[in-house]
Amino acid sequence: MSRENPDTKILLVFVFDIGGVVIKWRNSGQIYRYIAQRYRLPIHPLTGALAPEVRRLESGDGDADECVERVLAGFGRRLIVGDSGGLLLAQPFKEKARLREGVVQIITKLRGGLQGLCIVEHVSSPFEGDA
Q1: pTM for this structure?
Q2: Taking the chain, what is the end-to-end CA distance rounded to the nearest angstrom?
Q3: C-alpha–C-alpha distance, residues 65 and 63, integer Å
Q4: Which one is predicted more confidently, 40 or 63?
Q5: CA 67 from chain center: how many Å?
C-alpha cells in the first residue's frame, strides 16, 4: 500500500545476492607491494612487519591507522600527509574492483520505476571462495 494513496498497491521487488563489484583477491601481497612502493620500503621486511598487523585487523582487533603508523615508525617513516592506514590498506581493493554492469543496470531500472525495492546483499564469511 502507498502512504499517499492507501488504495494503491506497490509491488515489492527483492533483489538478492548483490555485491556490486567483483574483486579477484588471492592474498594480501598486493597491499604490501602497494605500501612498499608508495613509501619506498623493502618489500620483504615490510611484509614481515605488516602481516601480523593485517591479521589483527582482519580479526577486528585494532585500528588501521594505528597499525600502519606503528609499522611505518619501525622503518623510521610517518604517514604521508593525506594518507591514512585505512586508505593504504583499501587502495589495492579499489584498483581491482570492477562494477558488475548487469546488476547495476537492473538496480537502476528498478529504482527508477518502483518505490518498493528491497536489496538483500549476500555477505560471505572471510576467506570464503577465491576472493
Answers
A1: 0.55
A2: 41
A3: 6
A4: 40
A5: 18
Q: pLDDT digit string (tens) for 59-92?
A: 777 788 888 999 999 999 999 999 988 888 888 7
What pairing do the DSSP bridges indicate for beta strands 21-22 and 98-99? antiparallel
Query: Which of 23, 44, 27, 43 shows the shortest CA–CA distance to 35?
Result: 43
What is the DSSP secondary-structure string of 20-56?
SEE-----THHHHHHHHHHHT--HHHHHHHHHHHHHH
- Say if residues 47 and 28 touch (Cβ distance below 8 Å): no
Task: Name 12's Cβ contacts closer than 8 Å, sequence gap at least 6.
Answer: 116, 117, 118
Residue appearing with cell numbers 581493493: 93
Beta carbons within 8 Å of 11's beta carbon, 6+ residues apart: 114, 116
Write the DSSP assignment of 86-125 as a string of letters: HHHHHHHHHHH-EE-HHHHHHHHHHHHH-S-EEEE---PP
The pLDDT of residue 101 is 62
